[in-house]
Amino acid sequence: MSNDLQECPPCVKGAPLWVTTFGDLMSLLLCFFVLLLSFSEIDRQKYKQVAGSMEKAFGMQRKKNVSESPRHGLKMIAKDFDQTAIATRVKQFIGQELEENFEELYRKIEDDIEIEAKKDQLVIRMMGESTFDSGKADIKPELKPLILRIGQILTSETAGDIVIAGHTDNVPVTGGPFQSNLKLSIARAATVAQFLMDQTTIDPKRLSTMGFGEYRPIAENDVEQGRRKNRRVEIIVGTIPRPQGMTNHE
Questions:
Q1: d(C-alpha 227, C-alpha 170), whole Å
Q2: Is 114 helix (H, G, I), strand (E, B) or coil?
Q3: Are 224 and 192 in contact (CB under 8 A)?
Q4: What is this structure's pTM?
Q5: Using 50, 70 and 90 to split pLDDT, how confident is the model at 12?
């Protein structure tokens, strides 16, 4: 053999360098799409976990509080309002709004507001004199920004019907424009519904009102604490059954 022939250089063990770069790129793309999915479902816990993973993956140095869910410019994937998970998310949004943006007001009325996520239904209760003065059907001025924000959240984050239900205790109405507790409860429900129609972009077809007077208490009327709970306006998000052949908002 000729001495001019040179020996082949030893082969480098392992995968080519471009494979490592390609694998890193695919991993980052996967993280990106997982992040998009978590945004669309607005799951707070999932968002916090994914955001933390993304920060490590991209080597972010900027500090950012990942405890807050992305709200602006994002909307929940359209679903029928038949899942408790959706009601729970909206409950979290409203609860966070109360604590963060209405802190002083929340301290005053925290015992008079309840947010309950039921199966296929979300119920927001404003009890006592937190929303209305005794015997009156005008929303207190300090409560209007809060009710407005609740209406905005319900408009953008929920589907289905919104029922405003008025209730009273069993103490008879004396004087004033309302001759009975039933009329007072109807007037209060109508006032809240009209406020939401005037101040938000909510579809009026989603809104309806009910007045129950003293006839559907949630506590005993024998004590003041119970009567305070029974004097309430409820915002109920769910689905009202339609006659056969009709669809929602038809």
A1: 8
A2: strand
A3: no
A4: 0.63
A5: low
